[in-house]
From TrEMBL:
<feature type="domain" description="DNA methylase adenine-specific">
    <location>
        <begin position="325"/>
        <end position="566"/>
    </location>
</feature>
<keyword id="KW-0489">Methyltransferase</keyword>
<dbReference type="InterPro" id="IPR029063">
    <property type="entry name" value="SAM-dependent_MTases_sf"/>
</dbReference>
<dbReference type="InterPro" id="IPR050953">
    <property type="entry name" value="N4_N6_ade-DNA_methylase"/>
</dbReference>
<keyword id="KW-0808">Transferase</keyword>
<protein>
    <recommendedName>
        <fullName>DNA methylase adenine-specific domain-containing protein</fullName>
    </recommendedName>
</protein>
<dbReference type="InterPro" id="IPR003356">
    <property type="entry name" value="DNA_methylase_A-5"/>
</dbReference>
<dbReference type="GO" id="GO:0003677">
    <property type="term" value="F:DNA binding"/>
</dbReference>
<dbReference type="Pfam" id="PF02384">
    <property type="entry name" value="N6_Mtase"/>
</dbReference>
<keyword id="KW-0949">S-adenosyl-L-methionine</keyword>
<dbReference type="GO" id="GO:0032259">
    <property type="term" value="P:methylation"/>
</dbReference>
<dbReference type="GO" id="GO:0008170">
    <property type="term" value="F:N-methyltransferase activity"/>
</dbReference>
Length: 915
């Protein structure tokens, strides 16, 4: 036989034979691939042979050897298993001509186990080419058996894009970051021009990467690796539109990086997408290992026929690439395309208008704008010319460029640019790229009739450090109002951006934004709302009533549609806001009819309740009255008509109780000692430390606290060595950031080790309610920890027992739910400030002694059992009897169903993120 007939030659013949067999069989296995990878000594990423099913689904990978390598060889099996896991497959096959073995993943153990073996009598390399009929007959049996296994479900296939969903390919490619980074450093060290270019790039872009990539060489390595990955993906997809793009298939494991760059340049010259293919600095400086895997990936993309997928799937893959590398660094999460389309249709008035997304990330919203414009305007070029997008960071803009790529608009520049949304204003000159020759083009920003964006989810702690221009927004607000105006110091970044873009928006223009829901119920959110409604009319606020919109972030989100006022002013009393709840999951909106109906209904802003939506339209004057009753904006999504009649019977709970947070000292190991501490009894106090120990309406201390107000010298003089030794134990200690405890625990008027026990409580509430909602009464007045909110009666005249009952009535738990807002994990965020200012209760002094006794009698059974999750709790027979008795005492029994319904609706909205 020819000496050139080796594993690669045989594998290519195997692939050809499989394709001939599949063309005749018409079963689950449709074709085979892998030739491109085999052109350079086999691949390290992908199998020698890939089997495909319908729609390029990957069925299985094979590893092939000659007879002198046994199929039990550890390296062979380990490679085959690694590649199967990389592709998300539950099987692989190894074959050395003589023997073949099929391995299938056992779910229980997570191990690949052999399930089928085949054998023929070919024993050496020389016989492989001469006895080809024998191995071909075996191949036919193998393919038939694999089809059987597929059809009965033993083997399953995988969509190729699931490989990117799991980030495994991206992680493998980025695994070369440090090697490429070191090569970049050495290259720059040998060339002053290269060094200067990289240093200048880093000066401009370091803020984008410094948190997770403080090293400029690794940062540039990551960017270049990802850009190569993106170029390969996009060029493969472009084959569906341009014959010239088929040149990308020439980049195989035998191609060097210089040759590949020329191929990309040729594709660019003929297809006019230089804004996408334009190389980064030193893009050809790659290690051999990194380049090998990139070329293998390109061969794989050729095999799976990427050009046959939709642009939406391509963008989804590219977003996974970017966000897996970038994570939550700057608080940007890829917007689900269905949500983007809903937002765009809720917001845009005239599709011919210029529309911009100033925090575009990878361009999902910009693409939704563009796609909708194409449906209504005469040409794709017109749609692209009025679609604008920008982002503070360059990293995702490459993907946004791809999202807006349209072969029907070749030559039309994409109005995509890098800028900080906090600094944008009309008449500003910005620079975009000419797609034909890559030259910069200067254009002037217009006033935009419409701005739409998913604003970054960045909390104030990070926002201040990452955005030095943040507080310039307060200067702008003050100038616009003619008086000093400032957002609260703890405001999230999106609050600044929403107000900053007011100056970019045309008078009467619309702003549609996705943000977290924190502005609805926080202390800083109250200040933000007061400013927001002077600069904008708040037209619609939409929340989810059926699951989280962002599965990759523990953030609960809202859509808000605003209309710019000509000049800042207070809203008119009859100005309206629609509070809407989407009752369908996002997936239901894949149905165009349902999505269209929902979008149209939201645009019309009419009050209604149906299977898709609940919309309550409130006048500004009504909103203010509800706020005066202590309710936060999350409560405004429920029907509250009944509250007008109930309100005269309510009083602030703070009239009877001091409401504050429990004792806060900040170092639990010291202040809540474990057993064996040796501290004298006089320095120990029982304390209610954690909400977890409270299971019913009566609570008892669950821990011991160290409370010592004496000077160290006094302790020594009195021989109180237990307390003294305990203090000394922590005297030289440091906290989690390395600061001395004696320094961070110091308080004016306190010893650094002192915690006083005067923050006692009669009743306690939680700062983060979950499923159970109630107020607990301490068996005896006790000291409580900072994790709880204490209610301490103002005088001996307060009827604590009656107040405890009233606060736990259906109206009381409604108020608790209505004063907080739901966090990402469904917990109710509730502060002591909110509880103190807003908590209302039925007035305990207006009922008769007989009514009081009846309430306590019906409350008594609840005191002896565990409190159940809220929706189950309120349906218990003893609870219904108690709630009815309470409301009857005030003549409000006819409102029971309305109060209960409002509570349940708010509770379900908060808890829906668990779905």
């Amino acid at each position: 036989m020819s000496i050139r007939y080796n594993e690669r030659s045989w594998a290519i013949d195997v692939i050809s034979e499989i394709n001939l067999l599949c063309s005749r069989m018409g079963r689950a296995v449709r074709r085979a691939g892998g030739e491109s990878t085999l052109k350079n000594e086999g691949g390290v990423l992908f199998p020698d042979v890939l089997l495909f099913g319908d729609d390029s689904r990957i069925v299985q990978g094979w590893e092939l050897k000659m007879p002198d390598t046994p199929i039990t060889d550890n390296e062979l099996l380990n490679n085959a298993e690694r590649k199967a896991r990389l592709l998300g497959l539950n099987s692989f096959l190894v074959w050395n001509v003589t023997n073949a073995a099929l391995y299938v993943l056992e779910q229980a153990s997570g191990r690949f186990l052999p399930v089928r073996h085949w054998e023929i009598t070919i024993r050496n390399r020389e016989e492989v080419i001469n006895r080809w009929r024998e191995w071909r007959q075996l191949l036919e049996r193998i393919i038939a058996d694999i089809n059987d296994f597929l059809e009965i479900g033993t083997i399953f296939s995988a969509n190729f894009h699931e490989v990117f969903d799991r980030n495994t390919i991206v992680d493998v490619i980025l695994g070369h970051k440090q090697g490429v980074g070191e090569l970049l450093r050495r290259t720059a060290g040998a060339n002053a021009t290269t060094r200067a270019e990289i240093n200048n790039w880093w000066r401009l872009c370091h803020s984008e990467y410094f948190i997770d990539e403080p090293d400029q060489w690794n940062a540039l390595a990551k960017v270049n690796l990802l850009q190569w990955l993106n170029r390969l993906l996009f060029a493969q997809w472009m084959k569906r539109f341009f014959t010239a793009a088929r040149e990308i298939d020439r980049i195989t494991p035998g191609t060097n990086v210089e040759e590949a760059s020329l191929i990309i340049s040729n594709i660019t010259r003929q297809c006019d997408f230089l804004n996408i293919f334009q190389p980064m600095i030193c893009s050809q400086v790659l290690t051999d290992a990194a380049w090998q895997e990139l070329t293998e990936l390109n061969a794989f993309l050729t095999d799976i026929r990427l050009e046959n997928v939709s642009q939406d799937i391509l963008q989804n893959i590219l977003e996974k690439v970017v966000y897996s590398a970038r994570r939550e660094l700057v608080g940007q999460y890829a917007t689900p395309s269905i949500l983007a389309d809903l937002l765009v249709n809720m917001t845009v008035d005239d599709w011919g208008d210029d529309v911009i997304d100033p925090c575009c990330g990878t361009g999902t919203i910009a693409k939704a704008i563009f796609d909708n414009k194409r449906r209504y305007l005469e040409s794709s070029a017109m749609a692209l010319a009025s679609t604008w997008a920008s982002d503070k960071f360059t990293f995702p803009l490459h993907i946004a460029n791809i999202a807006l790529a349209d072969p029907e608009a070749v030559g039309e520049p994409t109005r995509l640019f890098q800028a900080d949304a906090l600094e944008l204003s009309p008449e500003q000159t910005i620079t975009i790229i000419n797609p034909g020759d890559g030259s910069p083009m200067d254009i002037i920003l217009p006033e935009f009739p419409c701005i739409i964006s998913n604003l970054p989810f960045v909390p104030f702690e990070i926002a201040r450090d990452a955005n030095p221009n943040l507080f310039g927004v307060n200067d702008f607000l003050s100038h616009a109002e003619g008086k000093e105006v400032a957002l609260a110091g703890k405001s999230d970044l999106y609050a600044y951006v929403a107000l900053a873009v007011w100056r970019l928006l045309a008078p009467g223009g619309r702003l549609g934004i996705i943000t977290s829901n924190s502005w609805l119920g926080t202390d800083w959110g109250e200040k933000y709302r007061s400013i927001l409604k002077r600069f904008y009319k708040i037209k619609t606020v939409l929340v989810s009533g059926c699951g989280r919109w962002f599965n990759n972030a523990d953030v609960v989100t809202t859509i808000t549609v605003l209309e710019r006022r000509l000049t800042p002013c207070l809203p008119a009393a009859d100005e309206t806001t629609a509070f809407a709840v989407l009752k369908q999951p996002l997936d239901a909106l894949k149905n165009e009819e349902i999505k269209g109906e929902i979008a149209d209904t939201l645009v019309l802003r009419k009050q209604l309740v149906n299977d898709n939506l609940s919309i309550i339209v409130r006048q500004h004057g009504d909103i203010e009255r509800l706020e005066e009753l202590g309710l936060e904006w999350p409560a405004l999504f429920a029907d509250l008509e009944w509250l007008n009649d109930v309100a005269p019977h309510l009083v602030p709970t703070r009239d009877y109780f001091v409401i504050n947070r429990g004792e806060r000292r900040g170092w639990d190991p010291m202040f809540y000692p474990e057993s064996g501490h040796g501290i004298e009894p006089q320095y120990l106090r029982p304390v209610l430390k954690t909400p977890r120990s409270i299971t019913g309406l009566i609570a008892s201390p669950d821990a011991t606290a160290f409370c010592c107000s004496r000077h160290i010298g006094e302790l020594a003089a009195n021989g109180h060595l237990g307390a003294l030794t305990w203090i000394r134990r922590f005297e030289q200690g440091v906290n989690k950031t390395g600061k001395p405890l004696a320094e961070v625990l110091a308080r004016s008027g306190y010893h650094w080790y002192e915690m006083r026990d005067d923050t006692t409580a009669d009743l306690v509430a939680f700062m983060n309610y979950d499923e159970r909602i109630f107020i607990a009464k301490l068996r005896e007045r006790s000291f409580v920890n900072q994790r709880l909110i204490r209610l301490t009666r103002r005088s001996q005249d307060v009827d604590t027992e009656l107040c405890h009952a009233l606060l736990n009535s259906i109206l009381g738990i409604f108020y608790i739910e209505a004063m907080g807002f739901g966090r990402g994990l469904a917990a109710l965020d509730l502060s002591s400030n909110k509880l103190s200012s807003g908590f209302r209760m039925l007035d305990p002094v207006v009922i008769t002694a007989a009514q009081r006794q009846q309430i306590l009698n019906d409350f008594a059974p609840l005191l002896t059992r565990r409190v159940l999750p809220a929706l189950a709790e309120i349906d218990q027979a003893d609870r219904i009897r108690f709630d009815s008795t309470v409301l009857a005492a005030y003549g409000l029994e006819r409102y029971y169903d309305s109060i209960k319904r409002a509570f349940c609706n708010l509770y379900r909205i908060r808890r829906t993120v668990k779905q």
